[in-house]
Amino acid sequence: MAQLDTLDRLSALDTNAVADALDLLGIKGAAYGLRPLWDCPNIAGRVSTVKFHLKTDAPSTATPATTALSETTTDGHILVISGGIDGVSCPDFVVDSAWKSKRIRGAVIDGLYQAVDKVHEAHCPAYGRGVATISDCSEMMQGDFGLPLNIRGIIVHQDDYVTADSSGTVFVPSNRIEEVLDVAERISHRRSLMAQAIQAGRPASDVMNDPEHQIISSDGRVAVPSNSNPKKSTPETHGLVSMLDNVDTAAVSDALDKLGICGQALGIMPLENYQKVTVGPAFTVRYVPAGQPAGSVGDFIDDVGEGEVVVIDNGGRTDCTVWGDIMTQYAGLRGIAGTVINGVCRDVNRAISDHYPLFTAGHWMRTGKDRVEVEAVSEPVAIGGVRVNPGDIVVADANGVVFIPRHRAREVAEVAQSIEQSEAGIREMIVDGATLAKAREVFKYHRLQRTE
């Protein structure tokens, strides 16, 4: 019964809270890069280790898979597999066999995996580094079951604990699970109370800077003023944003090319397939590695105006986040248009459920507290190879992010609108029966983005 209680407690927590608890306790357990291979449920369970190798000429002495699985997996276990490297997928028969026999809750694969459609159809939760196009048949051989593995620099043992969700994967040593759960549950409760305080209207900077026991009253209620954002958009800014409301990033990118402006942010992608375009002036923030003592990580949010886009330069770091659910919730309440990060975010489920636009270099669950701090606000930053000044216009959608120098925003908007009109004309001509070549010739398609 104790084991089931422990797994129930672990299942109730997200990886962000568990990773924060590991940080506080000085335990290494957050594994970067192991994410859902399909839109699968969150999982939490005990570890069953499996190791595969590339084939050699030596004969294999490994225990048969069926025997090893019976000995190392029971209900409540998750297969943790090391293998599937160098573009070759990890063998799928082990996952398939264990899942069909109902001995596992899912699989975490430190490598590539080919049979994604199979695990999806079987509703088997699977997390890994990616998908391979080369099967295991001729390259991989079975290794060992039940022995320690090195997973992304973390030593994982049989019967340790693992939890995985859309933010990533976290391992917890079995001999530390109770204290990790205790701390993680307090963190999760504290975050819930903080969210309630912010929802009620308390400034985020006040909430995040309060000592834990002073965040809100013991009954969970706070008497605070309205959360309305006092910083409103100026008529000039409103006019610039309005000009770009009806154009997407593809048209703006072509306009930037035509005008010889570098503004396309490389490697910064949307959290999901947004149907609307996010447009607004940039509120710039620059992070640097934390000093001693570490500085603040999020007080700037109270200074961001309604309709502005938070643009954060964290140097492209993927080992710690600078944006989570508290920031997402507060930004939404304040009417902030969206967030662009040269780095990673976490608590992605909150951003998705709130429909808050986030554009980043990725997502992971490990906190930036005591790792990074805010160095500058409202100063030039670098995002995806682009220099961004405060007040520059941000245009972001499902295709990515572009930045427009503020003093050239009207010019770019006019060119982008012209390009979109030309492309609309081409589409109309081909619907009416014209050849693509003829339609492109009429609207001078090949010259639309060229500098003249």
From TrEMBL:
Cofactor needs: Mg(2+)
Keyword Ribosomal protein: no
Binding positions (Mg(2+)): 347
GO molecular function, one term: metal ion binding
InterPro entries linked: RraA/RraA-like, RraA/RraA-like_sf
Record keywords, A-Z: Magnesium, Metal-binding
Residues reported to bind substrate: 324-327, 346
Protein name as it appears in the record: Uncharacterized protein
